[in-house]
Design brief:
Elements: E1 19-20, E2 59-63, H1 72-88, E3 92-98, H2 106-115, E4 121-125, H3 129-134, H4 158-162, E5 165-166, E6 169-170, E7 173-179, E8 181-185, H5 186-191, H6 203-214, E9 221-223, H7 231-242, H8 260-274, H9 289-295, E10 299-304, H10 308-316, E11 323-327, E12 334-343, H11 349-363, H12 373-378, H13 393-405, H14 415-419, E13 424-425, H15 431-447, H16 453-469
Parallel strand pairs: 2-3, 9-10, 12-13
Antiparallel strand pairs: 1-3, 4-12, 5-6, 7-12, 8-10, 8-11
Helix pairs in contact: 7-15, 8-15, 15-16
Length: about 475
């Protein structure tokens, strides 16, 4: 699910509007000029899909999610990147599409796929692959992606790439990824006599720390959780993964959470809420509520991905130095996800090559595009958050060093999270429908002192099995 995240399940977004921007390398945006065979301006090229794009090839491609005017620094970087890209590929015209609000607003995305009106290069979440394939919306780019067209390919986390594969075929390239961890308020940890450089690593430690933080009084909660808007189910899933549990079985057709581990998760939350009184009285919380609480020193910790932190600083007025992160307690697995670009089914081979050349430059080259941390610092954008974090080997070493060099926040606060990676695990099938059912488990244990955990889980199991049977 996720953030800005309901990425992760997607926050409610403004009504999607399509606007256009023109500049030297950006033409006015209309419907995608992506019919098979390409447009009339396309010339040259090679029939070998594994060969890089010939710089002499003349082609136009449309790109989703160009930053809107409201994001002035990001839009400035986009324009700079298009200009630099055109020094290498002067005959490629990039037409950027900007969507005010959230780029990937679910109804807009679904309507776009059904109408076959997506740009040549369109933005999705990792979890969107089944929907895209069901609509026959994306090209199989396996033959086009290799160490010549994407030189850092060997350094991309294979677990991230596997999220973009189906039946061994590659359908996208990543732009960002996330794993969930434990976000803490360092001030409250210190006020409660806890070590803010060593966040809890087990759920027993979370419970102990939460009681100490709640003991500070003044309406402060030690630990917070969601229980509405599908986000309670999202976080129940994260907690299940953290202790080695599953939401569905290996077949993907049967619920697996009505187990001893599921009961352990639910009973622990019930105990923290009603026995320890460490989770606060206000419940039925959704994304945004916990962020406001921790940003105003009213909450000690909650599960989150790293990009919650710049949101709280930029939108809620918090300070970077007040936050830290550790790996998800339990440490068996952590809920993972991310974003990527896919390429529209049916466009020409040269358009595909141009798209991969752009994505390689913009999203998959250390020190360039989105990984130009020096430029981001100069334009007062956040640097130092451990996300995206899909690099391995030499690329990881170089990128990590650059983030530290140009950091705008105390990166040491995330050291425990970075030094103790937890294996990522993808969201379950029919995730949003499953999460909606599991909201009832979370809201039940957090709003009802007399909640029957066994009954809540059994009822949810029956309902989820019905959801999975309708795939």
């Amino acid at each position: 699910m996720r953030s800005a995240r309901f990425r992760r399940g997607r926050r409610a977004a403004a009504v999607a509007l399509v606007s256009a921007l023109s500049l030297t390398a950006l033409a006015a945006c209309g419907t995608s000029s992506s019919d098979n065979g390409g447009d009339g301006a396309q010339q040259g090229g090679s029939s070998d899909p594994s060969a890089p794009l010939d710089p002499k090839t003349k082609v136009t491609i449309t790109i989703d999610c160009m930053p809107p005017a409201a994001k002035a620094a990001e839009l400035k970087h986009w324009k700079e990147d298009v200009a630099e890209f055109n020094k290498m590929y002067p005959n490629v015209t990039i037409e950027g599409r900007s969507t005010p609000g959230q780029c990937l607003e679910p109804p807009r995305f679904t309507a776009m796929l059904k109408a076959k009106s997506q740009p040549d290069v369109f933005y999705t979440y990792f979890t969107d692959l089944p929907q895209v394939l069901a609509e026959d919306g994306a090209e199989d780019i396996t033959a086009y992606v290799n160490d010549k067209t994407v030189p850092a390919l060997k350094d991309i986390d294979p677990d991230v790439l596997s999220s973009l594969r189906h039946d061994g075929k590659l359908y996208g390239l990543p732009t960002s990824n996330y794993t969930m961890g434990l976000l803490i308020n360092r001030k409250l940890f210190e006020d409660a006599g806890l070590n803010s450089d060593a966040p809890p690593r087990t759920w027993d430690e979370v419970r102990t720390a939460a009681k100490k933080i709640a003991g500070l009084g003044d309406g402060i909660a030690g630990f917070g959780e969601y229980s509405a808007g599908n986000q309670g189910g999202w976080h129940f899933t994260a907690q299940m993964y953290s202790v080695g549990g599953d939401i569905v079985d290996e077949s993907g057709k049967k619920a697996a959470f009505n187990s001893e581990l599921g009961k352990q998760v639910a009973r622990n939350l019930h105990a923290m809420r009603w026995e320890d009184d460490s989770m606060g009285e206000t419940q039925l919380l959704k994304w945004g509520d916990l962020q406001k609480q921790i940003a105003t020193d009213k909450l000690g910790m909650f599960l989150a991905a790293p990009d919650d932190i710049p949101y709280m600083v930029q939108q809620l007025g918090a300070k970077y130095e007040n936050f830290g992160m550790g790996p998800i307690p339990g440490g068996r697995n952590t809920l993972a996800g991310g974003n990527n670009y896919m390429i529209k089914k049916g466009i020409s081979g040269d358009k595909i090559k141009a798209a991969i050349a752009w994505l390689n430059f913009q999203n998959l080259t250390v020190g360039k595009g989105q990984f130009n941390w020096e430029r981001k610092k100069a334009d007062k954008l956040p640097v130092g958050i451990p996300q995206p974090n899909f690099w391995l080997n030499d690329s990881k070493a170089k990128d990590d060093a650059a983030r530290v060099e140009h950091a705008t926040m105390p990166v040491a606060n995330f050291k425990t999270f970075m030094d103790n990676p937890v294996p990522g695990k993808a969201e379950p099938p029919k995730a949003q429908e499953v999460y909606k059912v599991l909201d009832n488990v979370m809201s039940g244990v957090l709003t009802n002192k007399d909640a029957d955990v066994d009954k809540l889980l059994a009822t949810a199991e029956t309902q989820v099995n019905q959801v999975l049977a309708n795939q």
